[in-house]
Amino acid sequence: MIELDIQGTSSTPIVTTEWEAGVLRMSGDSYPENSFEFFGDIIGWVERYLKESDRPLRLELRLAYMNTSSVRAMLDIFDLLEEAHGGGREVRVDWYYDPRNERVASLADEFREDCTFPFLITPDPVAS
Amino acid sequence: MSGATVEQLSETELIRWVEGLLDDPAHRENPLLEPLGRLCELSRAQQTRMERLISISDGFHRISRDDHESLAERYDRHLRRMEKMARISDRYQNSLRELSVALKEAALKDPLTGLGNRRYLIERMQEEAERASRQEKPFSLGILDVDRFKSVNDRFGHEGGDRLLCDIAAAIRGSLRQYDLCGRWGGEEFLIIFPETAAGDAVGMAERIRTAIRAMSPAVPLPGDSAEGLRITASLGVSTHRPGECYDETLNRADAALFRAKSEGRDQVRQG
User: Fold this and answer.
1) If exposure means fewest CB atoms within 10 Å of the residue's CB, which of B31, B53, B110, B224 is most exposed?
2) Does B79 touch chain A (CB under 8 A)?
3) Helix (H, G, I), strand (E, B), or coil: what is residue B194?
4) Cα B86 from chain centroid?
5) How far apart are CA B83 and CA B100, in angstroms?
6) Cβ atoms of B232 and B216 closer than 8 Å
C-alpha cells in the first residue's frame, strides 16, 4: 500500500489518496512546470491500485484551471478507468465545481464525453 | 484427348495425360520413358514448391495489411484525442483571457464609487499630455476635495462617509460633458480631466461641479440627521496643461490652486 499526499501550490493541485477506501482526490489549479513528472506519480498510483486491488475506485475532483499537458494527463487517467470499467471493475468520477464558476461544469462535461463509466458533475456544497 | 486442344489443357491435366502414357505397357520399350518420367517428377516438385512460396508470401502480405489497419486505427484514435485535448484546452484559455480582462478592468476601478482609480487617472493624464503636445490643444485638470469630510466621518461613521462619497461621485459624473473623465484620486479627493479644454472653460466646468455638489445637500440622506441635514460643499483647484509640461507639473499647479481655495474659505474654485 502506498499513499499520495501532495501539498498544493499555486500551480499544482492538492492530491491525496486513500488506498483502503479506494479514493483519489485532486483539487485546485493545475499547470505544473513538469507535468510529466507531476502526473507520473498520480497515474502510477491509479495503475497500481487497479492492478493490485480489486475494490472499486472513485476519483473526487475539484479541479479549476488546467493547462494543456494537465488536460492530457487527465485524459490518460480517464482512459485507465475506461479500460478497467471495460474489464468489469467498478470505477467512477465525481467532479465537484464551484457553483460560481459554471464554466468548469461544461469543461468537465467535455472530459466526460466518450466515458462509459459513471461520471458525476455536480456543484460543490463546500465551495459556496 | 486430342493434340489440337493441348494449349487449353491445364498443367495438372497435362501431367495426368503424360503419366497415363508412361503407365501404358505399349510404350514400355520407348527410350523417352525414363527422361519423361523424371521431367514429370520435377514438375510435381516445382508445383509444390511454388504453392508453398505463394502461401508464405500471402502470409506476409496479410501481416502487413493487419499492421497497417491497426496503425490507421491508432492514428484515428490519437487524432480524436488530440482534438478533444485542444478543444478543452482552448476553453480553459478563453476563460483565462476573460478573467484577465476582468482583472484589468478591476485594477483601474475604485471599488467604492465605481469611478476610475488613481492608476486609471495617471494613465489618462499621460495620454492627454502626449496628445496635447502632438495637437497643441491643451487639456485642463480639476482636483476636487470634499470640505470638512472628516466631520462627516466623525458624525456618521465610515459607512455614512462612504455613502456620501458615492453621492459626490454621482454628482460629479452628472455635471460632466460626455468626453470629460473623472476618477477618485484618493480619500475624499476626486480628479477631473477636461480633454481639449482651455482654462476659461475648465473653470466654468469646475464651477458647475461645485454648484452641483452644493445643490446635492442636504438631500444626501445621512442616518440620524434627516432634519438638520448637513451642508456638503467642495473646493476645486483647476490648472491647464502648458506646452512641454509633464502631467504631474500640471497636477501640482491644480493642487496648489486647491490649497488656496481651501485656505481662502472653501466651497470655491481657484485656478493655478
Assistant:
1) B31
2) no
3) strand
4) 16
5) 25
6) yes
Distances (CA, A) of B96 to A70, A99, A103, B86, B156: 15, 17, 11, 15, 42
Ordered by where they begin, the domains of chain B are: 3-67 (no CATH), 118-271 (3.30.70.270)
Q: Is B207 a catalytic residue?
A: no
| Residue numbers in B near A66 (CB within 8 A) | 88-89, 92
Write the DSSP symbol of residue B242: P
Q: Which three cell numbers stand for residue B2?
A: 486430342
Asked whether B181 and B195 are in contact (CB, 8 A), the reply is: yes
Q: What is the pLDDT of residues B146-191, one digit of tens each?
A: 998 988 888 888 888 899 999 999 999 999 999 999 999 999 999 9
Domain coordinates of chain A in residue numbers? 5-123
Q: Is A6 exposed, middle or buried (0-12, 13-18, 19+ CB in 10 A)?
A: middle
CB contact under 8 A, A72 and B96: no
Selected catalytic residue, list B41, B188, B207, B245:
B188
Distance (Å, rounded) from C-alpha B117 to C-alpha B222? 25
Give the separation between CA B210 and CA B268, rounded to whole angstroms.
7
Between CA A122 and CA A57 the distance in angstroms is 18
Q: Give how far B92 is from chain A: nearest CA, Å.
A: 7
Are B22 and B37 in contact by the 8 Å Cβ rule? The answer is yes
- B121: nearest Cα among B159, B162, B172, B174: B172
Q: What is the pTM of this model?
A: 0.61
Q: Give the ipTM of the model, two decimals please.
A: 0.79
Instruction: Report which secondary-structure segment, H or E, holds A41.
Output: helix A35-52
Q: Is A37 on the interface with B (CB under 8 A)?
A: no
Long-range contacts at B227-232 (CB < 8 A, ≥ 24 apart): B230/B152, B230/B155, B232/B146, B232/B147, B232/B152, B232/B164, B232/B168
State phi, psi for B209 to the nearest 5 degrees: -65, -45
pLDDT tens for chain A, residues 1 to 128:
689 999 999 899 999 999 999 999 999 999 998 888 999 999 999 999 999 999 999 999 999 999 999 999 999 999 999 999 999 999 999 999 999 888 889 999 999 998 999 999 999 987 65
Query: What is A5-123's CATH number, 1.10.1660.10, 3.10.50.40, 3.30.70.3270, 3.30.750.24?
Result: 3.30.750.24
